[in-house]
Every structure is written in C-alpha cells, then in structure tokens.
Amino acid sequence: MKIFQIIFLFVLIIPFAEIYLLLQVGGIIGALPTVFLVVFTAVLGAWLLKIQGFATLQRFQASIAQGIVPAYEIIEGSIILVGGALLLTPGFITDMLGFACLIPQVRRKIAGYVIENHLIQAGGHFNQAKSPEKDVLEGEFRKEE
Fold this sequence. Notes:
Layout: H1 3-29, H2 31-66, H3 71-88, H4 92-101, H5 104-119
Helix pairs in contact: 1-2, 2-3, 2-4, 3-4, 3-5
C-alpha cells in the first residue's frame, strides 16, 4: 500500500474507533467522568508537550553551538509536534499514541529509524560524514570589482 492510502485509512478508521471507545467508557464510568478524563489527558498532554518541547529546543541549540548537525533534535521536534496534536484530539486511542510520542526513549528510537532508513539512504547530508571526499569540488575563487 502507498503511504497516502495508509494515511487515508487511518483518518477514516480512527474517528469511528474513538467514538466507539468513548461510548463504551462512558457507559461504564458515566458521561461526566469520561469528559473529565478526556479533558485531563489534553491538559496533561499540553503540559508534557511544553516540557519535552523546551528540552528538545535546548538540545537543538546546544548542538548548533557545538557545530553538530542536530538531526535527532529536528526529527524529535516533529515527533513531539505530532504527539501534541494527537493529545489535543479528544479520544483514548489518539491519547495513547500521543503519550507514546512524548516518551523520550520511544521518540529516540523513532528518530533513529527515520535517520538511518530514510535520510541516509536518500543521500542526504548525513551521508557526507562517511565519505566527505566524495562530493568535494576543488577550485579557486576570486572576487573582481
């Protein structure tokens, strides 16, 4: 399957599953506790998003200051953004996925997978660390006024 078909199925199936799960939980614990639980997870998610986002931003800035390409931090920032959006979406399935995105160990593994399998194979700038002489063009520069 192509990635757009998978995303389309995800966008189509998840809302139905969320509604079903919300109705089931609401039938067991009641409507008001269910609403409270959904709001609580959104607030907790926003708080965790803030903490994790600032920590990743600080690591990004430290990497830049040391002259290191902040590849992991860039990918982790995107994962945190997706996790925050999932946590702010009402529902328990999206909350579980969102909380998984905010766990540093899980996020680091996802970022490592993306960098190893998608960026390096695509011939991105991370490949230059292994063979810098491959893309070097010798020459001279002179500015004439």
